[in-house]
């Protein structure tokens, strides 16, 4: 039995690179599609938001002389590219998937509305909500918080390359310890970089719990959905 009825899965663009330095690693993309297929077969309604950091980030573009708003728009288009790639991999794996976009660009994807997303999920389609919030100066973490709240997801599953939230960066500090669960207030008080502040505050104010877990280890998504105690749960 799946632990949640409807989820918002946030995938990082950067993880899509796999071993590469840029772009999309087909192996990682295929693994993501298989993991999503596994939980789709459990009857879970799945909404997905994917980042674009493997292709372009507005903030780092601004550091190289790009106009910030244009750079952020490039970043949002990068999320559309990743979303199309993931939908293609899902369809190849036998899972119906649809890309919605926060910026009008038919026929690449239909313009996002909450009702279109919910209707498709109720019909068994995986819905990938691309182009972030559609606005510059936001991130896909904020986009996924927003979409998670809008589609009335039970939880946001934030797939990363670390296996949860630690007292300090485990890649830099060997004494860092992992939280099994933590409150939003404590995340904020400790200044833990789980998501950016805007995204964290939105989830806290709208009571959307998140589970941060290692999505790059195949099988973990199903483990989270089956109720195994992996990752870190953040709640009010
Ligand atoms: N972005 C934006 N508005 C949004 C979502 C994303 O402007 O609502 C841009 C922003 O420039 C960001 C880029 O898209 O740097 C890629 O998203 P993000 O860095 O969040 O991707 P990830 O780190 O998850 O790969």
Automatic annotation (TrEMBL):
Keywords: ATP-binding, Cytoplasm, Kinase, Nucleotide-binding, Pyrimidine biosynthesis, Transferase. It catalyses: UMP + ATP = UDP + ADP. Inhibited by UTP. Coiled coil: none annotated. Its EC number is 2.7.4.22. InterPro entries: AceGlu_kinase-like_sf, Asp/Glu/Uridylate_kinase, Uridylate_kinase, Uridylate_kinase_bac. Its main location: cytoplasm. It comes from the Bacteria. Pathway: Pyrimidine metabolism; CTP biosynthesis via de novo pathway; UDP from UMP (UMPK route): step 1/1. It is found in: Cytoplasm. Belongs to the UMP kinase family. This is Uridylate kinase. It comes from Phocaeicola coprophilus DSM 18228 = JCM 13818. The gene is pyrH.
């Amino acid at each position: 039995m799946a632990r949640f009825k409807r989820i918002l899965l946030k995938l990082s663009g950067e993880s899509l690179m796999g071993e590469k330095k840029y772009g999309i690693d087909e192996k990682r993309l295929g693994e993501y599609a298989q993991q999503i297929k596994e939980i789709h077969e459990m009857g879970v309604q799945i909404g997905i938001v994917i980042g674009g950091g493997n292709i372009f980030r507005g903030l780092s573009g601004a550091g190289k002389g790009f106009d910030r708003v244009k750079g952020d728009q490039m970043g949002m288009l990068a999320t559309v590219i990743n979303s199309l790639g993931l939908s293609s991999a899902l369809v190849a794996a036998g899972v119906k998937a649809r890309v919605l976009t926060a910026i009008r660009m038919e026929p690449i994807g239909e313009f996002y509305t909450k009702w279109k997303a919910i209707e498709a999920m109720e019909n068994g389609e995986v819905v990938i909500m691309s182009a972030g919030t559609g606005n510059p100066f936001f991130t896909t973490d904020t986009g996924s918080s927003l979409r998670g709240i809008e589609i009335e997801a039970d939880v946001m599953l934030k797939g990363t390359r670390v296996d949860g939230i630690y007292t300090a960066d485990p890649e830099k500090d060997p004494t860092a310890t992992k939280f099994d669960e933590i409150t939003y207030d404590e995340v904020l008080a400790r200044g833990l970089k789980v998501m950016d502040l805007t995204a964290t505050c939105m989830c806290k104010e709208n009571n959307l719990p998140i589970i941060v877990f290692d999505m790059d280890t195949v099988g973990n998504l199903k483990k989270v959905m089956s109720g195994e105690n992996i990752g870190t749960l953040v709640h009010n």
